[in-house]
Amino acid sequence: MNTNLVFKMSIQNYNSQRIKNYFCKPTFVTKMKYIKILLINILFLSSCTIWGQNPENTPPEKNNSSKNQGFQRKFSNSKNRQERAPKGSYKIINRERDTTFIDTSLSMKKAYKFNYLRKDDFKLLNFENIGGPYTLLSKTDSKQSITPEMGFETSHFNYTAKEKISYYNVATPFTELYFKTTRNQGQQLDAFFTVNTSENLNWSVAFNGVRSLGGYLNSLTSTKRFRSTLNYTSKNKKYKLLGHYTFQNLLHQVNGGLTTAARDAFLSGDTEFQDRSTLEVNFLNSDNTLHGKRYFIEQEYHLSKQLHTGVSLSHELTYESKKYYFSQDQTYEFFGIAQNQDGFTDKTIYKNFENRLALNFKTKKIGDFGVKANYHYINYGYDNILIGTNSDTLNSGILVGNRINDTYSSISGYYQNNYKNINTKIHFDKNIDGIWKDAYALKTTLNYKIDSDNTLDFNIELSNKPVALNKQLHQSNYLYYYWQNNFDHLKTIYTSIGYYGQKWGNLKANYQNIKNYTYFNRVVLQQETLTTNPIEVSTPVQYDGNIDVFKLEYFKDFKWNKFGLCSTLLLQEVIQNKPTNSDTQSIYNIPQIITRNSFYFRDKIFKDALLVQTGITTKWFSGFYVDGYDPVIAGNYVQNTTRIGGNRLPIPLTDLFMNLQVKQTRIFFSLENFQHVFNQNTLEVAPGYPTRDFIVRFGLVWNFFL
């Protein structure tokens, strides 16, 4: 697009501050660097495709071996063109090597996943701008890994962990293009391409880019994620390899929320401020950024002659580097004392190296089992050592180190068996030395397939794992935002039982017990020497009582002829056993009820060439004290003054939608937050942070099977 034209459009619609936000990041050179990387990979894979379609490098009409059918296509004569390979020829393989298939159908489940995260966001409440943080309507700590997490949770919502990377095996080259409009200037794009260069080798490459200006000052978001995978199996099937590389950069401009006066104007529904850029925010020229890259490889070699039984040796190697930045051009006085009053950047680094060697056994009678020896290296921290000031601060006179690093070993094992429709999985991890030597995790899953339409499963997890590293150690230009803690491990017991059926729907009940729950508390300090207004600071606190969480969730897509009702209901109850201090506030805040219902009409028209799915979706949740958002630590803090939902949400969040499908193309139109057409938006997603206004969205998912 012509630069002058973009500049004129910005002048007409936004003030000078918003124009600065839009053009400041990233530079043109940076954009071209990512485009160059993507084009190089596509060109390389395209050349591999040309060679791989004819493994013997012979003309298509001379290569009629049945061995290569499904991996070659004949384009010279339309009469000789093969039909597209069956659905089962396009495989998606996860980390556990479980296989699913590429699905191009249109359903309500697919519509729920058509968003920035590319997953169902039923238990989330998004901030005003696409690509920004989320408020959790339901929380869980049932994560299997005992490797210490970096922290800065709100910056990790769209960060792809290694467990979420998929691998592929396809009969012919496959492409998926995802596009969706954003909030004001910008767009979302996710381009994916995979090809089998031979029957045994698959490559995939993808790039996800998001840029959205937002409706408020200094709220721009920018996402850049590049990922490439490799899946290889030798001809004799004895050697298998999975590998991937990811580069991710997630930027979010932050403004500290609305000022007190602007917030009052917003909550009052004053129509004078329908242009949200006229509402004043707490600060400008600030952002937090999460940058990460990862190299991963997993290989296995079968030592026995029989592939389905015997012994195999496997090896897994992971190196991941992350950097979190919080930058400001000028300090904000309500965060307290600062070392540098002008521009600064807080930089936190995290490096994780894992090397695993495993011995695996496959048997027909007792199942599969194995044991792993693991080597880990964790390095987290900063470049400086800080000493608390002599003034009235939270951490007066305390020496704060700059590193949490350790080299340690662990062991892990697994067992898996499938006997008479009962699938059993057991997995455990245990550290044996180092500063986190007491950490362990045990997960047991029992799945019973009653018949082709009905399944029961039972799950239990026990874990004792380290608290997130940014709660243990943190440094900042703001002296109130530094601490060093020696918290006890987080202990959890998680159990669940679920029924999944085509006729009666899905019903899942779970219970979780949490001990040593660690959270950010909001501390208000009166500092007359600095300002007449109080200073508000987030600081980590560990709760030594027990927290019990009960949940019951039901999902069913009811259908009557051409009409349908897709309903989801989640009931939650939290019991907080208070410790010696009986005045302790509620710290684990979630709504008791969350419900979402989509009433829709579905039919095929134009001689079944076009599938139409149109209707209305409503979402409502009961009132609760929502967690606040702190941009310095990219995290949520507990507060008990502002409630959202319930009476504050008399009209449910309402979306009107029309979804279309033409062959492998799915097109989505939606009128999001349609309820604000009739009443002024006065809802918050966190204290000082409004929810999204009414917006018209458009997008598509386009699949190509070559």
Q: Could you explain the architecture of this structure?
A:
The protein has a 22-stranded antiparallel β-barrel. A three-stranded antiparallel beta sheet has the order 2-1-5, with no helix packed on it. By secondary structure, it is mainly β. The model is unreliable at 1-81 and 389-393 (pLDDT under 50). Helix content is 9%, strand content 50%. The longest helix is centred in the first third of the chain and has 25 residues, at 28-52. A hairpin with a 5-residue loop joins strand 1 and strand 2. It is built from six helices and 37 strands.
Distance between the termini: 30 Å
Radius of gyration, Cα only, in angstroms? 27 Å
Oligomer: single chain
Main sheet properties: 22 strands, antiparallel, barrel
H/I helix tally: 6
Please give a quick description of this structure.
The protein is mostly beta strands and 706 residues long.
Feature tags:
single chain; 706 residues; mainly beta; 22-stranded antiparallel beta barrel; 37 strands; disordered N terminus
Give a topology summary.
Blueprint: H1 3-13, H2 16-24, H3 28-52, E1 90-93, E2 99-101, H4 108-112, E3 124-126, E4 134-136, E5 167-170, E6 174-181, E7 186-196, E8 201-212, E9 221-233, E10 239-253, H5 260-267, E11 286-302, E12 310-328, E13 344-363, E14 367-381, E15 386-387, E16 399-400, E17 403-419, E18 422-431, E19 440-451, E20 454-465, H6 469-472, E21 473-474, E22 483-484, E23 490-501, E24 505-525, E25 535-560, E26 563-577, E27 593-605, E28 610-621, E29 624-625, E30 628-630, E31 635-638, E32 643-644, E33 653-662, E34 665-672, E35 684-686, E36 689-690, E37 695-705
Parallel strand pairs: 24-31
Antiparallel strand pairs: 1-2, 1-5, 3-4, 6-7, 6-37, 7-8, 8-9, 9-10, 10-11, 11-12, 12-13, 13-14, 14-17, 15-16, 17-18, 18-19, 19-20, 20-23, 21-22, 23-24, 24-25, 25-26, 26-27, 27-28, 28-33, 29-32, 30-31, 33-34, 34-37, 35-36
